[in-house]
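RECORD TYPE: inverse folding
INPUT: structure tokens
STRUCTURE:
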């Protein structure tokens, strides 16, 4: 198992201790993941040992597990992200919205379920919610609108297709295979009591705990630091066959945001995605994970896939914990013990070398490179430009993975690259290449 330097551990402990004291958190557990291991953790406040085996309520971190159960169905061919909800779960006012829109909070579903405050009162069935057109608050795909209701519906979809309760599917298909045996729908064994701390006095009040019913997939799960670290390892690539690495990568792609911007916050498929940092010369890392809150509990799990590290925090308070604790722990770890990457090694290029190198989109210079993983990268040469990675298809074409050309087909030729109707040539507007619209016979020169 990996370990941290004593100086790094002290820095992490100091940040966590301050967060517990300043936030007046009854008990707080924090930890750091590297690769597959929880390499550091601590418990502060009224927490018994071993602190990494005490259950806390995860709140919306449960949505990651729900998304995994849905994507397993997609990968099995049981559904498509473009399927309307009513194809698999008929009888709701959101039946025309797609599975993918619900996963990325783009379906326009209401933020909460109708009726009593679902986080503080016993739950009901889907029929018991009594959904109506009032629970459709925005047009589809118009804007991001966080929806607990949407994830309740996704859990109901999983139960309908699997013909089993969502909790059972999550346990058997996700939690047990990932080694998360201390993650349960209700508290079991050693578990923290949830509290609200008075805003103006150092006194506390017990918060209620209940079965959320059909809303459970939005925030029901309880877990420990050790188990939450395993979920972090999953997001870092240790999938243990629960999902393919390609599907996990798909989960982390932000929907509806310009990911080349300096800072941004977005949502993928069941996960939050954000770029942190404000230095234009050194763009900050992209973090993937989720926050969580329920009455009496706050939680956070964020991973830096580039650094192969993650951080988590679990607290038994309704409000007060520093929301930047986990990202701060990651920043401390990056500064104190940056990841040492694997050495570069030569490898055979997946494409003929004669198609690599400089190309021109009209007069704009680009360069096509072979990059690790058998991929190609097309990006601006010496100046910003549209940038995308490409993966080979069996038919000899390449498909865009990200950036402007995500999903588009790239066709390679030694004389021209064809991409989304654009033709890239070896020289600016090469007259010998099939440039759309043709090339003026007078060529380059000084024109009146």
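DESIGNED SEQUENCE:
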């Amino acid at each position: 198992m990996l370990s941290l330097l004593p100086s790094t551990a002290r820095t992490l402990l100091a940040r966590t201790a301050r967060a517990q004291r300043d936030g007046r958190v009854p008990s707080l557990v924090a930890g750091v993941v590297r690769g597959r291991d929880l390499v550091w953790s601590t418990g502060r406040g009224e927490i018994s040992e071993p602190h990494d085996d005490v259950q806390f309520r995860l709140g919306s971190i449960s949505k990651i597990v729900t998304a995994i159960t849905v994507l397993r169905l997609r990968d099995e061919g049981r559904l498509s992200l473009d399927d309307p909800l009513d194809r698999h779960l008929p009888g709701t006012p959101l039946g025309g919205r797609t599975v993918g829109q619900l996963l990325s909070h783009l379906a326009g579903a209401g933020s909460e379920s109708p009726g009593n405050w679902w986080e503080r009162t016993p739950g009901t069935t889907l029929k018991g919610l009594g959904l109506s057109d009032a629970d459709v608050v925005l047009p589809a795909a118009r804007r991001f609108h966080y929806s607990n209701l949407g994830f309740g519906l996704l859990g109901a979809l999983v139960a309908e297709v699997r013909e089993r309760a969502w909790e059972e599917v999550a346990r058997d298909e996700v939690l047990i295979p990932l080694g998360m045996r201390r993650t349960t729908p209700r508290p079991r064994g050693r578990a923290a009591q949830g509290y609200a701390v008075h805003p103006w006095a150092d006194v506390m009040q017990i918060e209620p705990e209940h079965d959320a019913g059909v809303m459970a997939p939005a925030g029901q799960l309880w877990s420990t630091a050790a188990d939450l670290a395993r979920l972090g390892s999953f997001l870092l690539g240790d999938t243990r066959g629960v999902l393919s690495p390609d599907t996990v990568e798909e989960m982390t792609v932000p929907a509806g945001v310009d990911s080349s911007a300096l800072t941004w916050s977005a949502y993928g498929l069941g996960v939050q995605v954000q770029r942190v940092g404000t230095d234009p010369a050194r763009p900050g890392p992209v973090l993937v994970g989720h926050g969580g809150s329920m009455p009496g509990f706050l939680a956070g799990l964020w991973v830096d896939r580039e650094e192969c590290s993650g951080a988590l925090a679990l607290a038994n308070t309704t409000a007060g914990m520093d929301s930047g604790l986990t990202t701060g722990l990651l920043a401390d770890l990056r500064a104190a013990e940056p990841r040492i990457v694997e050495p570069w090694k030569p490898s055979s290029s997946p494409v003929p070398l004669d198609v690599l190198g400089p190309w021109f989109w009209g007069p704009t210079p680009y360069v096509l490179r072979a990059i690790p993983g058998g991929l190609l990268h097309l990006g601006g040469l010496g100046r910003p430009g549209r940038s995308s990675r490409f993966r080979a298809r069996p038919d000899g074409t390449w498909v865009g993975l990200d950036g402007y050309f995500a999903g588009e087909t790239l066709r390679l030729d030694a004389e021209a690259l064809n991409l989304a109707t654009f033709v890239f040539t070896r020289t600016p507007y090469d007259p010998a290449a099939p440039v759309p619209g043709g090339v003026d016979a007078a060529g380059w020169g000084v024109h009146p």
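NOTES: The first strand starts at residue 27 and ends at 34.
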